[in-house]
Amino acid sequence: MTDVPDHLVSLSERLRDAAAARETTAVIGLGTRPLLENESTTDVARHFVSAPSGVLDFQPDEMIVRCGAGTPLDELRAVLRSAGQDVNIGGSGTIGGALARGWSDVHRLGRGPIRDVLLETLLVDHRGTTIRVGGPTVKNVTGFDLARVLVGSLGTLGVLGEVTVRTRPLPLESRWSVIDGVDRRRLDEVRRHLYRPTSLLWDGGRLWIHLDGHPQDIDEQLQRWGARSDSPPALAPHRWSLPPDDALEVVGEEGDVVEVGVGLVHRRRPAPSRRVTAPEVHRRLETEFDPHRLLNPQVKRFSER
User: What is the pTM of this model?
Assistant: First the structure.
């Protein structure tokens, strides 16, 4: 536990009051990442809270930024890009919503997963208690890395009130290109020779490539394969998570696009349901952090799957 900073007092008090009344609370941002399809939080939650917004501290030399979890990503990017930096979180909405959802964007291959972005957070639990998790530098973190568990927890362990995240330098150039007529053999050949692509998207015939770096280096790589400039493909709404090699075998239906090397396939139809057995550590965390299921009640817990 830690002292409650001024910008989290209101959030802490509202959660404390809801807990005292044993009433459910949903966490809302800008509504760009619904936690469940075709289900409204208004049907299951009595109260609604949002995290505070605004950049609190930006240290370009250390490549870290601290902000309210309700800060819109567009607002955060504007601040970071004034110093030639960015954050490895795609899409729009709030930074807290992106971390709570936990979906990496299509640049995961080269830039890493979204869970690596979060260094430290002030978490407000269902009782309104503020807990500091992680540290502003990796070497300050010892023991169980709870910050990584919070990424993708969908607000079921607590409300991200304030977050400290890594930034990254903006490359000299970022470019999307496409190669036509790419079968599995040619795909393997391109993958072996491309230098650090940040994304490879393949629909079974076309391969979209995203490269960061010096313009001349990008030109030399793409000219070898006869690539032409193009925008990335529109991605279907459903995500199938598979082992990377198996994901390449699934592609075949119209609209399928696989994130090569990552194991995600974007498809027009939902993935078949499968039962996931939650590790004991997940069950214990859920019981410890929200034993009465008061936070984001519309989200199915691991222990309920």
Answer: 0.90
